[in-house]
Amino acid sequence: MRDPYDVLGVSKTADEAEIKRAYRRLAKKLHPDANASDPKAQDKFAELNTAHEILEDKEKRGQYDRGEIDAEGKPRAPDFSGFSGGGPRRGPGGFSGFDGDTIFESFSFGPEGVRRGGPRGGGGFEDVGDLFGFGRQRRSAGGGFAPTPGADMEITLPVSYEEATAGASKRVGLPNGKQIDIKIAPGTREGHRMRLKGQGEASPMGGPSGDAYVSVTYAPHAVFERDGDDLRHSLDVPLPDAVLGAKVRVPTLTGAVELAIPAWTSGGRTFRLRGKGLPTATGGHGDLLVKANIVLPKAQDEELEALMKKLREAAAQD
């Protein structure tokens, strides 16, 4: 996977606002719905979301910059150059083998990298990695070796606000080349994680495959701006409607609804449509906040100008 900075097209000194702007711009450009003819659209969009997930999080960004995780957010294996504990022993006659007990007491080697542990216990498996040159294996309590399962995979699945609200079926590409359809239930929230057992990476030693975990993320929307579980929308209101009042159509995630604009509505006034936002943790929905944006007629109107002059003169006298 490419460098997250290259994916977003930002420098390593970019601040949070610059990263957010770059992500929104590219998300609209690369969204699969806007690139239906591109078979790689889903992969490109997933790569963009992974890069954004790393760089928007200060902790993950720091880990990536220090080389602790890779471009997919996975831990990097540490450098063992110069490692001496539990290594080969040499006696007066030369090489005399590994001090295996010391090695297994100090470290265990797994798909997630190397971790320090205590002395060996009496049961279960112990991951000894590729220590002796014949693949990642696990030592069993009986003294034999069992192949290590394949690595788990994390997949980010972008869904639109409408799909999260009403439910949808989404096609996902898996590491093994399969294409599967995943059903998104109505009311699915961002961060929901699904396990696909045995759909991760294959084991290099013939063991069981790992699992694939699919996490739902919200894709940027062209009409609504997210504010927690609420949505915000700026609605253009013609000047006559703002002065005299009118009923206007407002888009929502479940279809347009009618909103009554009272007479003498000022620009910036916000109307709340309850239950028209995103799914909440309690099973309900947030609200839609509609801000009135007063717009003038497209054509120049001399009578309107004369009226405005009259009002301005009256205001000056007051």
UniProtKB/TrEMBL annotation:
The keyword Chaperone applies. Residues 3-68 form the J domain. GO terms for cellular component: cytoplasm. It comes from the Bacteria. Residues 53-77 have a biased composition (Basic and acidic residues). Pfam families: DnaJ, DnaJ_C. GO terms for molecular function: unfolded protein binding. Keywords: Chaperone. Residues 83-97 have a biased composition (Gly residues). One of its GO terms (biological process) is protein refolding. Residues 51-97 are annotated as: Disordered. The keyword Chaperone applies. This is J domain-containing protein. It comes from Xanthobacter dioxanivorans.
